[in-house]
Amino acid sequence: MSWNGGGSFRRIVQTPGGISIVLRRGPGARVAAQHVMNGIPHLPANIRQWYGDSRGHFEGNTLARM
Length: 66
Known about the structure:
This protein is mostly beta strands. It contains no helices and five strands.
């Protein structure tokens, strides 16, 4: 499965509090996108993360981002 950023899919890890999507981008480089799903609010505006501050939930069988 390809990813539109030029990397390749690696793995999805689901825990009770969230989902991590790990991608490989180039030789040895990996990106882990974290999606918090336990209902906690977004971080304060003065705290910025490299890949954002994603919150998600399921709508039926579909993962939706907030």
